[in-house]
Design a protein that fits this description.
This protein is mainly alpha-helical. The protein has one domain (about 10-115). Helix content is about 75%, strand content about 0%. It is built from five helices and no strands. The chain has helices at about 10-20, 30-70, 80-90, 95-105, 105-115. The longest helix is centred in the middle third of the chain and has 41 residues, at about 30-70. It is rod-shaped. It is found in: Plastid.
């Protein structure tokens, strides 16, 4: 029986995975089996942390808004401000409110005074 040489497909697949893990340290970028394991692990972590990043930023924005509101003593809590924003149908998301709170506190005072009226 004649000898059959393997094609280039498996090698191409391994080099594609190796390019993905080329910046990893040690055996995680050299050995084929650990390369595939680390690629799976990296993709799982990336997928998980995309959702976590959204949660973390939302918590950061809420903390910033709450700190400025309590400092100005216009409102007593963040929740009361957000509730009144929705009642007045002022659709400002938390990211924009946090930027206003940091960069221009007077504008946040004007918004909160407008809600009180």
């Amino acid at each position: 029986m004649t000898r059959i040489k393997r094609g280039y497909i498996a090698r191409r697949r391994r080099t594609k995975i190796r390019l993905f893990t080329s910046t990893f340290r040690g055996a995680h970028s050299r050995l084929t089996r650990t390369i595939t394991q680390q690629k799976i692990r990296a993709l799982v972590s990336a997928h998980r942390d995309r959702g976590r990043q959204k949660r973390d930023f939302r918590r950061l924005w809420i903390t910033r808004i709450n700190a400025v509101i309590r400092d100005n003593k216009v409102y007593f809590s963040y929740g009361r401000l957000i509730n009144n924003l929705y009642k007045r149908q002022l659709l400002l998301n938390r990211k924009i409110l946090a930027q206003i709170a940091i960069l221009n506190k007077n504008c946040l005072d004007m918004i909160s005074n407008e809600i009180i009226k």
